[in-house]
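Subject: two folds for Thursday's group meeting

Dear M.,

Sorry for the delay on this. The cluster queue was jammed most of the week, so I only got both jobs back this morning. I'm pasting them in the order they finished. Each block is the input sequence followed by the predicted structure tokens. Could you check whether the formatting survives your parser before we put anything on slides? The first protein is the one we discussed after the seminar.
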Amino acid sequence: MSFVHAVLFAILQGATELFPVSSLGHAVVVPALLHWGINQASPGFLPFLVMLHLGTGIGMLIYFYADWLALLRGTLGQGYTAEVREQRGFLLRLIIATLPAVVIGFAIKKPVAHLFASPLIAALFLIANAGLLLMGERLRGRAIRAKGDMSNTDALVIGFFQCLAFLPGISRSGAAIVGGLRRGLGHEEAARFAFMMGTPVIFAASVLEVPKLLHAHELHALFGVALLAAIISGVVAFLSTAFLMRYFREHEAWALLPFAWYCAIFGAGSFMLLLAGL
């Protein structure tokens, strides 16, 4: 992988991980469309992507540092009783929402692994992602709940929606936001929970994959480039998060629709171009 390709991958990952358009789907489809000649089935490709996810996770962690700090203080029992109770409840919901991804991911990792190297399949799932986002807006809960009004059941449902992202082309953040909308959350609140919920998942994946990048002899030359790419990805992710949180707050009525149409057009166009061998 060249330095230029690594930087482009980093920018792509930092933006599309947060935008509900599937970072993994773009990571598979875009190189195939542009004929970068990257072997996505190579042993170094997935760990490289995980490094980019790690950078993205750090960018998200920095953006939500006040939320995570409040969560830490509440978990440790610091603050007023009501604040401690609220933060501990939020932590419990984050854990509940993460459990489906851990269990289902462990169960289906090998069966779906071959899909991650297929641009055609990823393009089709980008179209499916468009349908998911459209469905999310159409079938959302009618009454928008007050900020912070989320139950453990809501968190579990959002966690199961997040698992749709095990298919390359389905957006993790998009699926989680749709789950939140279905349970009556507003776009901003659903996005906040989706972004914070994604942070431990990203770090958990990094713990599993980054050691492979460090210890595999054929990957040593890639680590320096991957580290720089992770930093770039983190900066882009921070800026993307800042933009999206404001965007979701200001466009409550139809926030997911532009992303849905983008995925439908890009997915269909990519599928036709790839099928034609162009």
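Second protein, same layout:
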Amino acid sequence: MKIKKYFLIIIILIPAVVYACFRILVFIADNKATDPEKMIERYTDNSGGRFYRINSGINNSYLIPCKDGWLMVDTGYPEDYGRFRKAVASAGIDISSIKWLFITHAHDEHAGFAEALRKDTGCRIIVPEKSLNDLRSGQMVWTGKAVNRRIEFVSALYDIVKARDMKFPPIIPGKNDIILTNDDKIFLKGIGIEGTLMATPGHSDDSWSLLMDDGRAFCGDAAMNFLNLLGADYRPIFITNEKEVYNSLRKLLRSGAAYFYTGHGTAFGKEKIEEMLAEYKK
């Protein structure tokens, strides 16, 4: 009887310990950058211009210089806004100088504090047409799948621990905002950016990227440097269409992408994508 009793105790304790440990890991991941200065990564482009990565949790935002200020790529979760503001201030950037916000797709960690930023700065938004329904409802609608069962398990635990409901303050574009329907270069040139906004679906139907003429690809979740130890291999950890994932990455490479600045994880060179595409021939 004692053996059975101890066995039952162990069976009960193991899930509790796993949950507790994962809760700690999630807290660390979401709050790893409590020092605003450590949330900022400074880069220099080929012409000597400065641009930034801001990591306010598990998600990256980017600031790229444009006419009269900055174009920002993606946000973070709604609750990340305070940390983001402190990080931007620590870099000596006036938040009101953010003139444009490009939302790569309508997921809660990419559009989460967009409305708060727009309210505070008056920035104009650039969004894919296919994102509009979810942005207006303030609700991420997900129909995809994880790239493998390990990532599915870890992600499910993360969502449970974080009590993630996929919601964010609704975003209703106005007449001065830009709705993306086709790949576009002309608009960017008008705001002082040499690059192309292009559709890169696969992670989601509404996923878009910003590819600079110098080879920098700000690709949202079209590629990632995240959970590679669990088999992500620089792919999106969740996909709606696997074939489109690889086609979008090939499109970026054909268009000159040399370095990938992703929504999750640090930047990496195109050779990682080339190696991955050689392995996953779709």
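Two things I noticed about the second structure. Residues 52 and 125 are 19 Å apart (CA to CA). The mean pLDDT is 90.

Cheers,
T.
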